[in-house]
């Protein structure tokens, strides 16, 4: 069951960065390759119309997330969308046959709410960290950092989705790297806040 959990976790975390990328990747791989075989309850992800609709939504998301201010509004909307996608991604991924999982455990099949809820929580956590980081990036780069950060997030979502399906053991490395980055970010943000407070205090003393 370890690989199933890692696959679901990687896909849900990817959805926290971009709601549509992991769902599209699962749909395309299930439709055109043998890398993943979706269970009967999730085969709709490979439907051509579903993939097309997700692709259109992805195009809107890609543009909106790269424009300062608009990206903040988009993040507010995505507070519902990304966790939902994370639940779907974990549920579908954890119960699918992949190149590393030939016999998915029956636990996720008989308790479908567990992977869905788990995916929602994982995606929500990643989304909240992403949403907290973006305003700081915009403020420190006068908005020029938004498209760079967004592109990096999209690329990470693509790679993590593929890794989760093909080589899920590497999901741990991705998650550790993601956690390290956000820990560094929060620490840097805290240091900058203390520096500003010290500067204001020094100004008042003068």
UniProtKB/TrEMBL annotation:
Q: Does the entry feature the keyword Transmembrane, yes or no?
A: yes
Which residue ranges traverse the bilayer?
12-32, 44-64, 158-186
Looking up InterPro entries in the UniProt record yields: DUF4126 (IPR025196)
Q: Which UniProt keywords apply?
A: Membrane, Transmembrane, Transmembrane helix
What single Pfam family name could you report for this chain, choosing any that match? DUF4126
Q: Does the keyword Transmembrane apply?
A: yes
Superkingdom in the source lineage: Bacteria
Record domain DUF4126: where: 6-188
What name has this protein been given in UniProt?
DUF4126 domain-containing protein
Q: What is the species listed in this Swiss-Prot or TrEMBL entry?
A: Micromonospora purpureochromogenes
Per the UniProt record, the lineage of the source organism begins with:
Bacteria, Bacillati, Actinomycetota, Actinomycetes, Micromonosporales
